[in-house]
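Sample A.
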Amino acid sequence: MNDEPRKQFGALPFRVDDEGRIEVMLVTSRETRRWVIPKGWPIRKLRPDETAAREAYEEAGLAGDISRDPYGVFTYDKRLKSRSFVPCTVDVFLMRVEKEQKRWPERDERERRWFDPQTAAELVDEPELSDLIAELPERLAARTGRLAKAVSGRG
């Protein structure tokens, strides 16, 4: 058996409310009903960020701005239909959600829900993904601060 990790691409969907609070959307996995982010295998002729955006639409009915560069990486063991496991490395792309569809391809197979980052970080099983979610408010604030400085000419 090949223990080389397989590559996947995922979206970390988030939104910011009127008070500046960040929320993260998680979906349930089809098989085990664990809370996860939308993710999947590479799709031919799509860039990694485009693949992540497609997965966010198919699994959660989401559309929005997705980063071109990965926000981070996490690893996990994917359970296959054969009941065996394959190690996977997931490149995670931030997605600022602009639209939630009422109908989407996997709506009958998954649940989707918004959480504050701390709760979302506690709900996912993968420690590296938990860290990426927990760090989101601080990392977004740092990006926004750098952007504001660059726009004002002080950066």
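Sample B, a different protein:
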Amino acid sequence: MAARMEDLLPVEYFHVVFTLPTPIADIAYQNKSAVYGLLFKASAQTLLTIAADPKHLGARIGMTSVLHTWGSAMTHHPHVHVIVAGGGLSPDGTRWAACRPGFFLPVKVLSRLFRRLFLEGLLMLHQAGKLAFFGNLSELADPDTFAAHLVPLRKANWVVYAKPPFGGPAAVLAYLSRYTHRVAISNHRLVSADAGTVAFRWKDYRIKRGDRMKLMRLPVAEFIRRFLIHVLPSGFHRIRHSGFLANGIRRDRIEKIRRLIDTGREPDQTTGEDGRTDPDEHDLCRACPRCGGVMRIVETFARGQPPKSRAPPWEDAA
């Protein structure tokens, strides 16, 4: 969290979700490392390619991708959440190119390119002998059968969902702190457990209105099976950074982008009358490393000196 705080920029952030269709998810279950890796690669390349197109943003963007493999009922539902800054470096690297307020990239265009890149990559994995098939999928080991299996998927709609923009850098940190290290189910959803069954709450997304929370009871063995579906291969990284946030160039790129953003702003948008940054904007980028909530400065004192306040502000308020 501390490292991500250093990467945040004073710009709008967007949240894009790439989801694999069920026939591909079945293949991914038997080839986790290869197919999940391809999911990361295809989704990142999709965003980088469309954003670089002058018809859209015309810029080199940066993103953080987080893999989730579960639905609310702990079924297998592989998808990638992508947190991306609303803009990027111009092709010549001399300015920050911001996207339109509230809009990043068209999801239909993203969906089509994501579908093509992923299916091409999946076919290459099969041709290289990097996919294995078992049980009712064993016939897909044959190249012709596998190619035929992919034909209807080339015409189907692949789900790429752009959520509303985050409410600022602090909201990005709040999201990352909650979701980057989640497992298939959290403790607060567990209702009861005994030798025979486990009961937990789940959200039925098929219900469009009203209360979508329901109670599910599963035999213990089935509950354990669903939980273990989401154990990743040893050494697999479920959080990855791309574009100008790639590990090898991130620090230099972030410093350069901050300079470009500061240079491109109007004076009354970035500084007060004394030339210093508006304290409200400065505070917005400070987030609690534990919960992600916004932190406010209540007092500043020199090193080695005690604070003037005798009690924390929340005790005074009480």
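Observation for Sample B: The beta strands are 13-19, 62-70, 76-85, 87-89, 96-98, 160-163, 190-193, 197-203, 213-219, 239-243.
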